[in-house]
Protein backbone atom coordinates (compact mmCIF):
# COMPACT_ATOMS: atom_id res chain seq x y z
CA UNK A 1 0.00 0.00 0.00
CA UNK A 2 2.82 2.37 0.93
CA UNK A 3 4.59 1.67 -2.36
CA UNK A 4 1.42 2.27 -4.34
CA UNK A 5 0.93 5.59 -2.56
CA UNK A 6 4.47 6.65 -3.42
CA UNK A 7 3.90 5.71 -7.08
CA UNK A 8 0.72 7.78 -7.12
CA UNK A 9 2.64 10.64 -5.54
CA UNK A 10 5.18 10.57 -8.38
CA UNK A 11 2.36 10.43 -10.94
CA UNK A 12 0.84 13.49 -9.29
CA UNK A 13 4.15 15.29 -9.42
CA UNK A 14 4.56 14.90 -13.17
CA UNK A 15 0.87 14.96 -14.14
CA UNK A 16 0.37 18.76 -14.44
CA UNK A 17 3.32 19.02 -16.82
CA UNK A 18 2.39 15.92 -18.89
CA UNK A 19 -1.35 16.59 -19.08
CA UNK A 20 -0.78 20.31 -19.71
CA UNK A 21 1.56 19.33 -22.57
CA UNK A 22 -1.07 16.97 -24.02
CA UNK A 23 -3.65 19.78 -23.91
CA UNK A 24 -1.25 22.22 -25.58
CA UNK A 25 -0.23 19.71 -28.24
CA UNK A 26 -3.84 18.98 -29.25
CA UNK A 27 -5.02 22.58 -28.90
CA UNK A 28 -2.14 24.10 -30.88
CA UNK A 29 -2.43 21.46 -33.59
CA UNK A 30 -6.17 22.10 -34.09
CA UNK A 31 -5.72 25.88 -34.13
CA UNK A 32 -2.56 25.56 -36.22
CA UNK A 33 -4.39 23.60 -38.90
CA UNK A 34 -7.08 26.28 -39.00
CA UNK A 35 -4.38 28.95 -39.34
CA UNK A 36 -2.66 27.14 -42.20
CA UNK A 37 -6.00 26.57 -43.93
CA UNK A 38 -6.87 30.27 -43.54
CA UNK A 39 -3.52 31.22 -45.08
CA UNK A 40 -4.43 29.24 -48.19
CA UNK A 41 -7.59 31.27 -48.59
CA UNK A 42 -6.35 34.77 -47.67
CA UNK A 43 -3.67 37.16 -48.80
CA UNK A 44 -3.11 39.10 -45.57
CA UNK A 45 -3.35 38.74 -41.79
CA UNK A 46 -1.28 35.56 -41.66
CA UNK A 47 0.73 36.67 -38.63
CA UNK A 48 -2.30 37.07 -36.44
CA UNK A 49 -3.65 33.65 -37.43
CA UNK A 50 -0.38 32.05 -36.31
CA UNK A 51 -0.41 34.19 -33.15
CA UNK A 52 -3.91 33.01 -32.20
CA UNK A 53 -3.02 29.40 -33.01
CA UNK A 54 -0.27 29.50 -30.35
CA UNK A 55 -2.65 30.58 -27.55
CA UNK A 56 -3.07 27.05 -26.28
CA UNK A 57 0.65 26.76 -25.49
CA UNK A 58 0.22 28.46 -22.09
CA UNK A 59 -1.15 25.26 -20.50
CA UNK A 60 2.18 23.49 -20.70
CA UNK A 61 3.88 26.47 -19.04
CA UNK A 62 1.30 26.45 -16.23
CA UNK A 63 1.89 22.71 -15.89
CA UNK A 64 5.66 23.16 -15.56
CA UNK A 65 5.20 25.79 -12.84
CA UNK A 66 2.75 23.58 -10.90
CA UNK A 67 5.15 20.63 -11.24
CA UNK A 68 8.04 22.63 -9.78
CA UNK A 69 5.83 23.95 -6.99
CA UNK A 70 4.76 20.40 -6.08
CA UNK A 71 8.31 19.09 -6.39
CA UNK A 72 9.50 17.62 -3.07
CA UNK A 73 10.62 14.22 -1.72
CA UNK A 74 7.63 11.89 -2.12
CA UNK A 75 6.58 9.95 0.99
CA UNK A 76 3.46 8.36 2.47
CA UNK A 77 2.46 11.62 4.16
CA UNK A 78 2.41 13.81 1.06
CA UNK A 79 1.75 11.30 -1.77
CA UNK A 80 -2.06 11.54 -1.63
CA UNK A 81 -1.94 15.34 -1.72
CA UNK A 82 0.55 15.40 -4.59
CA UNK A 83 -1.53 12.92 -6.57
CA UNK A 84 -4.81 14.79 -6.04
CA UNK A 85 -3.55 18.29 -6.78
CA UNK A 86 -1.26 17.19 -9.60
CA UNK A 87 -3.73 14.99 -11.49
CA UNK A 88 -6.73 17.28 -11.09
CA UNK A 89 -4.87 20.46 -12.05
CA UNK A 90 -3.30 18.53 -14.95
CA UNK A 91 -6.72 17.39 -16.20
CA UNK A 92 -8.06 20.94 -15.97
CA UNK A 93 -5.07 22.22 -17.94
CA UNK A 94 -5.37 19.46 -20.53
CA UNK A 95 -9.05 20.04 -21.23
CA UNK A 96 -8.59 23.81 -21.28
CA UNK A 97 -5.80 23.39 -23.86
CA UNK A 98 -7.93 21.19 -26.12
CA UNK A 99 -10.99 23.40 -25.94
CA UNK A 100 -9.00 26.60 -26.25
CA UNK A 101 -7.53 25.20 -29.46
CA UNK A 102 -11.05 24.58 -30.74
CA UNK A 103 -12.08 28.15 -29.83
CA UNK A 104 -9.00 29.48 -31.62
CA UNK A 105 -9.79 27.41 -34.73
CA UNK A 106 -13.33 28.82 -34.76
CA UNK A 107 -11.98 32.36 -34.24
CA UNK A 108 -9.53 32.01 -37.15
CA UNK A 109 -12.25 30.59 -39.41
CA UNK A 110 -14.71 33.35 -38.52
CA UNK A 111 -12.25 36.25 -38.72
CA UNK A 112 -11.04 35.01 -42.10
CA UNK A 113 -14.50 35.72 -43.52
CA UNK A 114 -15.07 38.85 -41.42
CA UNK A 115 -11.74 40.42 -40.39
CA UNK A 116 -13.46 43.16 -38.37
CA UNK A 117 -14.58 40.64 -35.72
CA UNK A 118 -11.05 39.35 -35.08
CA UNK A 119 -10.79 40.97 -31.61
CA UNK A 120 -14.18 39.74 -30.45
CA UNK A 121 -13.72 36.28 -31.92
CA UNK A 122 -10.80 35.49 -29.59
CA UNK A 123 -12.81 36.37 -26.46
CA UNK A 124 -14.10 32.77 -25.97
CA UNK A 125 -10.51 31.50 -26.16
CA UNK A 126 -9.48 34.14 -23.59
CA UNK A 127 -12.32 33.05 -21.28
CA UNK A 128 -11.12 29.43 -21.49
CA UNK A 129 -7.62 30.70 -20.70
CA UNK A 130 -9.10 32.39 -17.62
CA UNK A 131 -10.36 29.03 -16.32
CA UNK A 132 -6.93 27.50 -16.92
CA UNK A 133 -5.42 30.34 -14.87
CA UNK A 134 -7.89 29.56 -12.03
CA UNK A 135 -6.80 25.92 -12.04
CA UNK A 136 -3.14 26.98 -12.13
CA UNK A 137 -3.30 29.62 -9.35
CA UNK A 138 -5.33 27.50 -6.94
CA UNK A 139 -3.07 24.50 -7.54
CA UNK A 140 -0.19 26.73 -6.38
CA UNK A 141 -2.18 27.99 -3.39
CA UNK A 142 -3.33 24.56 -2.24
CA UNK A 143 0.07 22.94 -2.75
CA UNK A 144 1.31 25.09 0.15
CA UNK A 145 -0.61 22.75 2.51
CA UNK A 146 1.10 19.55 1.28
CA UNK A 147 3.86 18.44 3.70
CA UNK A 148 7.39 19.01 2.37
CA UNK A 149 9.15 16.33 4.36
CA UNK B 1 -11.20 14.56 -32.18
CA UNK B 2 -13.42 13.52 -35.11
CA UNK B 3 -15.18 16.88 -34.82
CA UNK B 4 -11.94 18.62 -35.85
CA UNK B 5 -10.70 16.08 -38.38
CA UNK B 6 -10.84 18.47 -41.33
CA UNK B 7 -9.92 21.78 -39.71
CA UNK B 8 -7.21 22.49 -42.28
CA UNK B 9 -9.42 21.58 -45.24
CA UNK B 10 -12.45 23.58 -44.13
CA UNK B 11 -10.41 26.60 -43.09
CA UNK B 12 -8.83 26.68 -46.51
CA UNK B 13 -12.24 26.92 -48.20
CA UNK B 14 -13.82 30.32 -48.74
CA UNK B 15 -16.94 30.99 -46.71
CA UNK B 16 -20.17 30.49 -48.63
CA UNK B 17 -22.77 33.29 -48.70
CA UNK B 18 -25.63 33.24 -46.20
CA UNK B 19 -28.18 33.75 -48.98
CA UNK B 20 -28.09 31.50 -52.03
CA UNK B 21 -29.77 33.94 -54.41
CA UNK B 22 -27.30 36.72 -53.61
CA UNK B 23 -24.51 34.65 -55.22
CA UNK B 24 -23.16 35.92 -58.51
CA UNK B 25 -20.20 33.55 -58.82
CA UNK B 26 -19.21 30.33 -57.03
CA UNK B 27 -16.90 31.22 -54.14
CA UNK B 28 -14.41 28.62 -55.36
CA UNK B 29 -13.88 26.88 -58.70
CA UNK B 30 -14.35 23.12 -58.96
CA UNK B 31 -10.66 22.69 -59.79
CA UNK B 32 -9.62 24.50 -56.61
CA UNK B 33 -12.27 22.65 -54.58
CA UNK B 34 -10.98 19.30 -55.85
CA UNK B 35 -7.43 20.29 -54.88
CA UNK B 36 -8.60 20.93 -51.30
CA UNK B 37 -10.70 17.75 -51.23
CA UNK B 38 -7.50 15.79 -51.88
CA UNK B 39 -6.95 16.20 -48.11
CA UNK B 40 -9.81 13.77 -47.40
CA UNK B 41 -8.77 10.31 -46.29
CA UNK B 42 -9.60 7.37 -48.57
CA UNK B 43 -12.81 6.24 -46.83
CA UNK B 44 -14.22 9.73 -46.63
CA UNK B 45 -13.30 10.48 -50.25
CA UNK B 46 -15.12 7.29 -51.29
CA UNK B 47 -18.20 8.33 -49.28
CA UNK B 48 -18.18 11.79 -50.84
CA UNK B 49 -17.89 10.30 -54.35
CA UNK B 50 -20.80 7.97 -53.52
CA UNK B 51 -22.94 10.88 -52.31
CA UNK B 52 -22.12 12.94 -55.40
CA UNK B 53 -22.93 10.04 -57.71
CA UNK B 54 -26.29 9.60 -55.98
CA UNK B 55 -27.26 13.26 -56.07
CA UNK B 56 -25.83 14.80 -59.19
CA UNK B 57 -27.20 14.19 -62.63
CA UNK B 58 -23.86 14.64 -64.34
CA UNK B 59 -22.54 11.61 -62.43
CA UNK B 60 -25.55 9.36 -63.01
CA UNK B 61 -25.96 6.47 -65.42
CA UNK B 62 -28.77 6.39 -67.95
CA UNK B 63 -30.67 3.36 -66.71
CA UNK B 64 -34.36 2.64 -66.29
CA UNK B 65 -36.16 3.63 -63.08
CA UNK B 66 -35.99 0.21 -61.42
CA UNK B 67 -32.24 -0.12 -62.07
CA UNK B 68 -31.54 3.41 -60.83
CA UNK B 69 -33.50 2.82 -57.61
CA UNK B 70 -31.92 -0.55 -56.83
CA UNK B 71 -28.40 0.74 -57.61
CA UNK B 72 -29.16 3.88 -55.60
CA UNK B 73 -30.33 1.91 -52.57
CA UNK B 74 -27.24 -0.27 -52.76
CA UNK B 75 -24.97 2.76 -52.85
CA UNK B 76 -26.97 4.48 -50.11
CA UNK B 77 -26.45 1.52 -47.80
CA UNK B 78 -22.69 1.80 -48.30
CA UNK B 79 -22.52 5.31 -46.84
CA UNK B 80 -21.02 4.81 -43.39
CA UNK B 81 -22.63 7.67 -41.48
CA UNK B 82 -26.34 7.68 -40.55
CA UNK B 83 -26.33 11.46 -40.66
CA UNK B 84 -25.01 11.56 -44.23
CA UNK B 85 -27.34 8.77 -45.31
CA UNK B 86 -30.25 10.90 -44.04
CA UNK B 87 -28.93 13.94 -45.92
CA UNK B 88 -28.92 11.98 -49.17
CA UNK B 89 -32.24 10.22 -48.52
CA UNK B 90 -33.97 13.54 -47.85
CA UNK B 91 -32.85 14.90 -51.23
CA UNK B 92 -33.79 11.70 -53.06
CA UNK B 93 -37.23 11.71 -51.43
CA UNK B 94 -37.71 15.28 -52.54
CA UNK B 95 -36.84 14.28 -56.11
CA UNK B 96 -39.22 11.34 -55.96
CA UNK B 97 -42.08 13.63 -54.98
CA UNK B 98 -41.17 16.11 -57.70
CA UNK B 99 -41.08 13.31 -60.25
CA UNK B 100 -44.56 12.23 -59.16
CA UNK B 101 -45.88 15.78 -59.55
CA UNK B 102 -44.36 16.06 -63.03
CA UNK B 103 -45.64 12.67 -64.17
CA UNK B 104 -49.13 13.49 -63.00
CA UNK B 105 -48.94 16.85 -64.78
CA UNK B 106 -47.91 14.98 -67.95
CA UNK B 107 -51.17 13.01 -67.72
CA UNK B 108 -50.00 9.74 -66.18
CA UNK B 109 -52.37 7.91 -63.90
CA UNK B 110 -50.95 5.66 -61.19
CA UNK B 111 -53.04 3.36 -59.02
CA UNK B 112 -52.18 1.44 -55.85
CA UNK B 113 -51.49 -1.64 -57.98
CA UNK B 114 -49.08 0.14 -60.38
CA UNK B 115 -45.36 0.16 -59.70
CA UNK B 116 -43.91 3.54 -58.84
CA UNK B 117 -40.17 3.68 -58.39
CA UNK B 118 -38.63 6.14 -56.02
CA UNK B 119 -36.85 6.69 -52.73
CA UNK B 120 -38.20 7.20 -49.25
CA UNK B 121 -41.25 6.49 -47.19
CA UNK B 122 -43.83 8.39 -49.23
CA UNK B 123 -44.28 5.92 -52.10
CA UNK B 124 -47.45 4.42 -50.59
CA UNK B 125 -48.98 7.89 -50.25
CA UNK B 126 -48.09 8.77 -53.81
CA UNK B 127 -49.78 5.64 -55.20
CA UNK B 128 -52.80 5.79 -52.90
CA UNK B 129 -53.50 9.52 -53.19
CA UNK B 130 -52.33 10.07 -56.77
CA UNK B 131 -55.30 12.31 -57.56
CA UNK B 132 -54.85 14.58 -54.53
CA UNK B 133 -52.83 17.72 -55.38
CA UNK B 134 -50.38 17.11 -52.50
CA UNK B 135 -50.64 13.27 -52.33
CA UNK B 136 -52.13 13.70 -48.85
CA UNK B 137 -48.74 14.97 -47.62
CA UNK B 138 -49.47 18.71 -47.61
CA UNK B 139 -49.44 18.98 -43.82
CA UNK B 140 -46.05 17.37 -43.37
CA UNK B 141 -44.52 18.79 -46.56
CA UNK B 142 -46.06 22.25 -47.06
CA UNK B 143 -43.86 23.03 -50.10
CA UNK B 144 -45.69 20.36 -52.12
CA UNK B 145 -48.70 22.60 -52.75
CA UNK B 146 -46.52 25.42 -54.02
CA UNK B 147 -44.51 23.06 -56.22
CA UNK B 148 -47.75 21.60 -57.61
CA UNK B 149 -48.96 25.10 -58.41
CA UNK B 150 -45.74 26.04 -60.22
CA UNK B 151 -45.85 22.82 -62.24
CA UNK B 152 -49.48 23.30 -63.24
CA UNK B 153 -48.71 26.89 -64.31
CA UNK B 154 -45.50 25.84 -66.14
CA UNK B 155 -43.35 28.15 -64.02
CA UNK B 156 -40.14 26.15 -64.42
CA UNK B 157 -37.84 28.85 -63.04
CA UNK B 158 -40.02 29.48 -59.96
CA UNK B 159 -40.13 25.73 -59.30
CA UNK B 160 -36.38 25.42 -59.63
CA UNK B 161 -35.87 28.36 -57.27
CA UNK B 162 -38.23 26.75 -54.76
CA UNK B 163 -36.25 23.50 -54.90
CA UNK B 164 -32.90 25.27 -54.59
CA UNK B 165 -34.17 27.25 -51.62
CA UNK B 166 -35.58 24.13 -49.92
CA UNK B 167 -32.25 22.35 -50.30
CA UNK B 168 -30.25 25.38 -49.20
CA UNK B 169 -32.32 25.80 -46.03
CA UNK B 170 -32.15 22.09 -45.26
CA UNK B 171 -28.34 22.10 -45.58
CA UNK B 172 -28.17 25.26 -43.47
CA UNK B 173 -30.19 23.57 -40.71
CA UNK B 174 -28.07 20.44 -40.87
CA UNK B 175 -24.77 22.31 -40.73
CA UNK B 176 -25.46 23.49 -37.17
CA UNK B 177 -22.97 21.68 -34.95
CA UNK B 178 -20.79 20.56 -37.87
CA UNK B 179 -17.90 22.96 -38.30
CA UNK B 180 -14.70 21.02 -38.99
CA UNK B 181 -15.82 17.40 -39.42
CA UNK B 182 -16.57 15.24 -42.47
CA UNK B 183 -20.31 16.07 -42.60
CA UNK B 184 -19.28 19.75 -42.75
CA UNK B 185 -17.16 18.94 -45.83
CA UNK B 186 -20.05 17.08 -47.48
CA UNK B 187 -22.51 19.89 -46.74
CA UNK B 188 -20.02 22.41 -48.15
CA UNK B 189 -19.75 20.43 -51.38
CA UNK B 190 -23.54 20.00 -51.65
CA UNK B 191 -24.03 23.72 -51.11
CA UNK B 192 -21.32 24.39 -53.71
CA UNK B 193 -23.45 22.45 -56.23
CA UNK B 194 -26.49 24.60 -55.39
CA UNK B 195 -24.52 27.84 -55.80
CA UNK B 196 -22.96 26.58 -59.01
CA UNK B 197 -26.36 25.71 -60.38
CA UNK B 198 -27.87 29.06 -59.43
CA UNK B 199 -25.05 31.15 -60.90
CA UNK B 200 -25.13 29.18 -64.13
CA UNK B 201 -28.64 30.44 -64.86
CA UNK B 202 -27.96 32.80 -67.72
CA UNK B 203 -30.58 33.70 -70.31
CA UNK B 204 -28.09 34.53 -73.08
CA UNK B 205 -26.01 31.41 -72.54
CA UNK B 206 -29.17 29.32 -72.39
CA UNK B 207 -30.32 30.71 -75.77
CA UNK B 208 -26.91 30.05 -77.26
CA UNK B 209 -26.93 26.49 -75.93
CA UNK B 210 -30.48 25.97 -77.21
CA UNK B 211 -29.43 27.10 -80.68
CA UNK B 212 -26.42 24.78 -80.56
CA UNK B 213 -28.64 21.86 -79.65
CA UNK B 214 -31.11 22.71 -82.39
CA UNK B 215 -28.28 23.00 -84.95
CA UNK B 216 -26.78 19.69 -83.81
CA UNK B 217 -30.17 18.00 -83.97
CA UNK B 218 -30.96 19.41 -87.40
CA UNK B 219 -27.53 18.70 -88.88
CA UNK B 220 -28.60 15.42 -90.45
CA UNK B 221 -32.04 16.57 -91.50
CA UNK B 222 -32.35 17.47 -95.16
CA UNK B 223 -35.44 19.36 -96.14
CA UNK B 224 -37.45 18.00 -99.02
CA UNK B 225 -37.00 20.96 -101.33
CA UNK B 226 -33.19 20.90 -100.98
CA UNK B 227 -31.41 19.92 -104.16
CA UNK B 228 -34.52 20.46 -106.28
CA UNK B 229 -34.25 22.97 -109.13
Notes on the protein architecture:
The complex is a heterodimer of chains A (149) and B (229). Chain A has 149 residues and is an all-alpha fold. Chain A has one domain: Four Helix Bundle (Hemerythrin (Met), subunit A), CATH 1.20.120.610. Helices cover 83% and strands 0% of the residues of chain A. Chain A has helices at residues 2-41, 46-53, 58-70, 76-113, 118-121, 123-143. In chain A, α1 (2-41) runs antiparallel to α2 and α3 (58-70) runs antiparallel to α4. Chain A is elongated and about 60 Å long. Chain B has a domain at 62-154. Chain B has helices spanning 7-11, 30-37, 42-55, 65-78, 82-105, 123-128, 143-152, 156-175, 182-199, 203-218. Chain B is globular, with a radius of gyration of 21 Å. Chain A binds chain B through residues 26, 30, 33-38, 40-41, 102, 105-106, 108-109, 112-113, and chain B through 1, 3-4, 7-15, 36, 179-180.
Summed up:
The complex is a heterodimer of chains A (149) and B (229). Helix content of chain A is 83%, strand content 0%.
Keywords:
heterodimer; A: 149 residues; mainly alpha; Four Helix Bundle (Hemerythrin (Met), subunit A); 6 helices; elongated; B: 229 residues; globular
Amino acid sequence: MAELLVILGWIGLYAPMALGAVGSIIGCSIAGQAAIGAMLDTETGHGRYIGVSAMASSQVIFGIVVMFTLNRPVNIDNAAGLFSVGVLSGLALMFSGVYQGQCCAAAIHASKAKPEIFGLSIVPAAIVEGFAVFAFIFALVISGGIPKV
Amino acid sequence: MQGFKYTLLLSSLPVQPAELFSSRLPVISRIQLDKRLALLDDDDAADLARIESLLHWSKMQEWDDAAIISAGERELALIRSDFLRDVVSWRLELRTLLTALRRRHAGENITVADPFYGFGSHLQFIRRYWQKPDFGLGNTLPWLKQAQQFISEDHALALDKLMLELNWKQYERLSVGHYFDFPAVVLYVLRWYLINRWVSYDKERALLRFNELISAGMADVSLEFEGKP
